[in-house]
Amino acid sequence: MSYQIKAKEKFEKLRNQEDVLILSIESSCDETSIAVVKNGREVLSNIIATQIEIHRRFGGVVPEVASRNHIMAISSVYQEALDKAGIKDSDIDAIAVTYGAGLMGALLVGVNFAKGLAYSLGIPLIAVSHVHGHIAANYISHHALKPPFICLMVSGGHTALLKVEDYNKFSMLGTTLDDAVGEAFDKVARVIGLPYPGGPEIDKLAKNGENKFKFNLSSSLKNTFNFSFSGIKTEVVNLVHNKAQKGEEINHADLACSFQEAVTKELAEKAVKACKLSNLNKLVVAGGVGANSRLKERLASLCQDNEIEFFSPALKYCTDNGAMIGSMAYYMLKDGLGLAQLNLTAKPNVEFRG
Ligand code: KG4
Ligand code: ZN
After folding, report:
1. What's the gap between Cα 87 and its chain centre?
2. What separation in Å is there between the alpha carbon of 156 and the centre of ligand 1?
3. What is the pTM of this model?
């Protein structure tokens, strides 16, 4: 029997199987991660080989360097994921992989490794969108959480407000018109000499500062769910350069705090407004910037004032990891979605499926 037929049969069988073990692979940026996830919510292992130290000296991710390091890491990460989960390769029911969005070369390493595994084990391959994976990170951290809810998606590549109507039904309420919020955090950090990735560094530094600069975000998007972060980013960069030209000091902690205050206010207020307008009393944050302590503080407090339940993933599931891909793949499988053929390729620009 050909692989395709066998995989399709097994996929259909798994939809009704009580326990499903998915081995999931994530390699879209600078983390090579493989996890084993049971029934979408129980993480048996989640191994992450991060390349942060390697890219730090370049001030950001260098795509070619990322691909090469994924190739070097992926086999041992796979072995470690099996060992830590205490399973053999024959125990795996399906392979899941991030096929986009992300860096082409980096994605291809995961996609090709996944195809090889699925083919050699004769099991289905499930293609998962990275942003959907970030949403599913919340199912791991909150076992009772179920759609519908509003999701504030904030990562290095995406910023959006989504209505998650069901596990596989998303509608976009708004998005960024220019930079993703993580990109803005990283850029501001870079201009004040903080190492990559800048988001967590700004978060730390802001704790020692005050909101002295009182930045404002563009008011033209006030009555929409869209965002724009390039204006504030440029304002900060220009301010730093102007002061440097005049030989004047600028307090970096105050700058970090002021930037973070303006950005998190905008994100939190629009997210809560989206809940109220959609009549939904659950708000979920997803993506790397979801790790930001001030954003979480603001969201938690605004949600409390508005009787909205607030969810955020555990810190280790906020940034890129394989487990979130395994969780999303489980819910795709249950709905009969995502079965990939062996001609699956990486799609750097895939975003949200409606
Ligand atoms: O979701 P993620 O790991 O990768 C993408 O899919 O893009 O997000 C990475 C982004 C980076 O821009 C990083 O600076 C930001 O998340 N980030 C944070 C924090 N932790 C990570 N931004 C602000 N505060 C944090 N604590
Ligand atoms: Zn991500």
Report:
1. 27
2. 5
3. 0.95
